């Protein structure tokens, strides 16, 4: 699937980053 939007992969990467950060915070607290 080809998309015109260059932001789409960035959104997906950012979403993954946020998920990992949330997991780290969940472990800390």
Task: Write structural notes for this entry.
The protein has 29 residues and is mainly α. The chain has one helix spanning 7-28. The longest helix is centred in the middle third of the chain and has 22 residues, at 7-28.
Oligomer: single chain
Uncertain parts: none
Q: How much helix, percentage-wise, in residues? A: over 70%
Write down the Rg. 13 Å
Residue share in β-strands: under 5%
Characteristics:
29 residues, mainly alpha, 76% helix, rod-shaped
Offer a quick outline of the entry.
With 29 residues, the chain is mainly alpha-helical. Helix content is 76%, strand content 0%. The chain has one helix and no strands.
Write the layout of secondary structure elements.
Elements: H1 7-28
């Amino acid at each position: 699937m080809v998309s015109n939007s260059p932001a789409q992969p960035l959104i997906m990467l950012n979403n993954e980053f946020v998920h990992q950060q949330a997991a780290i915070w969940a472990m800390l607290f």
